[in-house]
Write a structure and sequence with these properties.
The chain has about 260 residues and is of the alpha+beta class. It contains 4 helices and 15 strands. The relative contact order is 0.13.
Length: about 260
């Protein structure tokens, strides 16, 4: 019942998009020729935050004050976080969250922060899976290859699902992503938060090649969602670009 109310509100306020437009680009996780992965076109979209959801609910006709709605949503998030910290599983209308620890343990069973990772398994609810069946896919074609970021791997976990670890390296794969010239102001690897603030990678890049970068995620990067941005003047010729080129990863990265 709760989810049905959410669905009606979402549909009325256009939160649910009935069409996803996707680009095709080389699938770097397989390295096979003529094998493409889908990249959802997020151009013109924004990250929906609690304050936005509160406004959508208010605009749908709710008589509850906007400030009260925001407080309720913030309390919901806080309680979910607290219960997960306590080791509870949480089931919402959208997904089930289950505490988990990754990494291999030896016979002594010692937890090693550099080897093991405290994280969450996220499984979509039956209701959410049913709603996704209502989405139509529009293929926009093969993305114009010149420059792109195709895959980001958290080297500490080996995961490519978008989760990254503060203080550890990520492997960035794509094409024409080499930072050149190194050290020039405004160039480099950045993590852009939901407010649009770009946090730079300040540590020297472990690898800096046209198709591969290895960059250290800032140790103090707060938990949240980030857009990965690479800014460079690199070209395949000996003449650099006059203006920096901005390349962004289509998938949001998440610091748990």
């Amino acid at each position: 019942m709760h989810f049905e109310i959410i669905k009606k509100i979402a549909t009325k306020t256009n939160i649910v998009k009935m069409k996803w437009r996707i680009w095709l680009q080389p699938n770097l996780s397989t390295g096979i020729d003529n094998d493409y992965a889908a990249s959802v076109n997020l151009a013109g979209k924004k990250v929906i935050r609690s304050r936005d959801i509160a406004k959508f609910i208010k605009d749908s006709g709710s008589e509850v004050e906007l400030e009260t709605l925001e407080q309720i949503l913030e309390q919901h998030d806080r309680i979910v976080c607290e219960k997960l910290q306590q080791g509870h599983g949480v089931l919402t209308g959208f997904c089930q969250l289950t505490p988990t620890v990754t990494g291999s343990f030896g016979a002594r069973g010692k937890f090693i922060p550099d080897v093991h990772k405290i994280t969450l398994d996220i499984v979509l609810s039956a209701e959410m899976r049913a709603m996704l069946k209502e989405v139509d896919i529009v293929i926009m074609g093969v993305k114009d290859g010149g420059t792109f970021i195709g895959l980001v791997t958290d080297t500490s976990t080996g995961l490519t699902d978008g989760t990254i670890t503060a203080g550890d390296d990520i492997l960035i794969e794509g094409d024409k992503i080499q930072i050149d010239p190194l050290g020039e102001n405004g160039l480099g690897v950045f993590f852009v938060n939901a407010d649009g603030d770009a946090i730079p990678v300040t540590r020297r890049l472990t690898q800096n090649e046209p198709q591969r970068l290895i960059a250290r995620v800032p140790n103090d990067l707060p938990p949240g969602q980030y857009t990965l941005r690479v800014v460079t003047k690199y070209t395949t010729s000996s003449i650099l670009l006059m203006e920096p080129r901005v390349i962004e990863y289509d998938k949001l990265l998440i610091v748990p």
